[in-house]
Amino acid sequence: MKGDLVARLTVFARALRGRGVRVTLADVADGAGALVLVDLFDREEVRFALRTALKIRPADWDTFDLLFSDFLSLAAGVPSPQERRPSAPAGAAGPAVPIPLGQTGPAPAGAGHSPMGDQPGYSRDMLLRRKPFDQCTAADLAAMERLLARLSLRLATRPSRRLVPTRGRGFLDLRRSFRRAVATRGDFVAFARRAPAIEIPRLVVLCDTSGSMDGHSRFLLTFILSLKRVARRTEAFVFNTALTRITPWLAPGKPGLSLERLSVRVPDWSGGTRIGESLAEFVARHQHHVLDRRTVVVILSDGLDRGDPAVLVDAMRVIRARARRVIWLNPLLGDPRYQPLARGMQAALPFVDHLAPAHNLESLERLLALVAA
């Protein structure tokens, strides 16, 4: 993709943010990737691709459409109406300043020195994405919850490799097109097409709420709440010295209320941990109801187990045999000096497909690729 088009996309995203539409740097990167995959000469295809990649909420669609025509004009090298400056009156001194995309009047004083900054390094969202959960302050909680919710929404818009029939634009399906032509005596009245399916994975999430996980549990549980909102088949469990199924207690869109309920109802919250016994209970009571070859199991734990490692080995062996994939997210992996030497991690590792960090939002973003793989 030409660098000029990426620059125009950045300007477009800045204009959206100026109108109150939430667009992050990661969303812009997704938008650039989407533009590589579509026909840039097809207006509607570009519009739908960007609206999906930038994660535009339905409430902001009108604003998006209003600024989208400006983006197309800029991408084609044609000045948009907002950039067309009226001729300067005779005798006016100094060069005229073009009006930026999305702005309908002259730039306010000091606009070039926004305190938030336009460089990625000065983005508050970027800083929060990289900030360790155990270092977040109370002031960071609301913003972090919003970012976690936006991250989970990407699961609902991630296309799979599987192609399904579509009534809109997509890849030409010759076999179905010929079948249709039989009914019209060989005339191709309309071509059949296929497009990538949007597949929301089936997830089972088990989250450690022992004392050693205190600094991370709130954010990881908020992430589970957000996943449940878009992937309704997600089953959620927490464990410490015992296992508790929390799926019925999750209130979509109300993380604070749900977390308050959990802290009261889950026994031994922030207490000790017996990972092996908890997973053995999961296998004994729930495996036949929630596990199959389409299920991805995500375990969120630091692996600090006080129980018998043999029990953990037996439980993990059953989970691995029944699930499609097992992903273990360990917050301690955020420290480059960490080695998975705890006996719980040593016992579980042979049955884990992916061991990954979970100490900040940026690390959780990598989970999307692992789940969809």
Quick gist of this model?
The protein has 373 residues and is of the alpha/beta class. The chain contains 13 helices and 9 strands.
Residue fraction in strands: 5-15%
CATH T-level topology of the largest domain = Rossmann fold
Backbone shape: globular
The CATH architecture of the largest domain can be named as 3-Layer(aba) Sandwich
CATH class label of the largest domain: Alpha Beta
Q: Could you say which structural class the secondary elements and strand pairing correspond to?
A: alpha/beta
Distance between the termini: 25 Å
Q: H/E order of the elements?
A: HHHHHHEEHEEHEEHHEHEHEH
Annotation field: number of helices: 13
Q: Which strand order do you get reading across the main beta sheet?
A: 6-5-4-7-8-9
In helices, the fraction of residues equals 40-55%
Q: Look at the structure and name the CATH superfamily of the largest domain.
A: von Willebrand factor, type A domain
How many strand units? 9
Overall domain count: 3
Low-confidence stretches: 76-122
Please describe the biggest sheet, giving its number of strands, its sense, and whether it closes into a barrel: 6 strands, mixed
Whole-number radius of gyration?
25 Å
Mean pLDDT metric:
76
Structure description:
By secondary structure, this protein is of the alpha/beta class. The protein folds into three domains: 1-80; 162-197, no CATH class; 202-372, von Willebrand factor, type A domain (Rossmann fold, 3-Layer(aba) Sandwich), CATH 3.40.50.410. Helix content is 44%, strand content 13%. The protein contains 13 helices and nine strands. The strands form two sheets. A six-stranded mixed sheet has the order 6-5-4-7-8-9, with helices on both faces. Strand 8 (325-330), helix 12 and strand 9 (354-357) form a beta-alpha-beta unit. The longest helix is centred in the middle third of the chain and has 17 residues, at 214-230. It is globular, with a radius of gyration of 25 Å.
